[in-house]
């Protein structure tokens, strides 16, 4: 059991590192959106990301519904992060 727990801890640390890397790209996207006067939430892109992760989940034997639920939370967090730089979407061009 200790070996399994150590591997889970290793994977958790790697996931946190990957989330930090993703957050850095979210910050870069926010900078580009600020210049282009785009909103944080661009619904067609959100749905594209969700579709992509559902496909990846299916390919790896995971529940697409569970992965979608997790990613929608991640996307909402990412949009909130962008809004700290951009302001609320109501202040920006409507791309929904």
pLDDT < 50 runs, ≥5 residues = none
Total helical elements: 3
CATH superfamily: Chorismate mutase
Any idea what the radius of gyration is? Answer: 16 Å
Kindly report how far apart the N and C termini lie. 48 Å
Q: Give the proportion of residues in helices.
A: over 70%
Provide the structure class: mainly alpha
CATH class: Mainly Alpha
Number of domains: 1
CATH topology: Chorismate Mutase Domain, subunit A
**What is the typical, i.e. mean, pLDDT?**
93
Keywords: Isomerase, Lyase, Pyruvate
EC number: 5.4.99.5
Pfam families: CM_2
Protein name: chorismate mutase
Task: Give structural attributes.
96 residues, Chorismate Mutase Domain, subunit A, mainly alpha, pyruvate, EC 5.4.99.5, carbon-oxygen lyase activity, isomerase
Describe this entry's structure for a reader:
By secondary structure, the protein is mainly alpha-helical. It has one domain: Chorismate Mutase Domain, subunit A (Up-down Bundle), CATH 1.20.59. The chain has helices at 2-36, 43-59, 64-86. Helix 2 packs antiparallel against helix 3. The mean pLDDT is 93. One of its GO terms (molecular function) is carbon-oxygen lyase activity.
Record the SSE blueprint:
Blueprint: H1 2-36, H2 43-59, H3 64-86
Write a concise synopsis of the structure shown.
One of its GO terms (molecular function) is chorismate mutase activity. By secondary structure, the chain is mainly alpha-helical.
């Amino acid at each position: 059991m200790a070996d399994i727990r150590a591997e889970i801890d290793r994977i958790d640390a790697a996931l946190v590192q990957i989330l930090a890397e993703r957050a850095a790209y979210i910050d870069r996207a926010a900078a580009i959106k600020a210049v282009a006067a785009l909103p944080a939430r661009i619904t067609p892109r959100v749905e594209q990301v969700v579709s992509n992760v559902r496909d990846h989940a299916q390919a790896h034997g995971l529940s697409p519904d569970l992965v979608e639920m997790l990613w929608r939370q991640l996307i909402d967090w990412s949009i909130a992060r962008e809004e700290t730089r951009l302001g609320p979407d109501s202040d920006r061009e409507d791309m929904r």
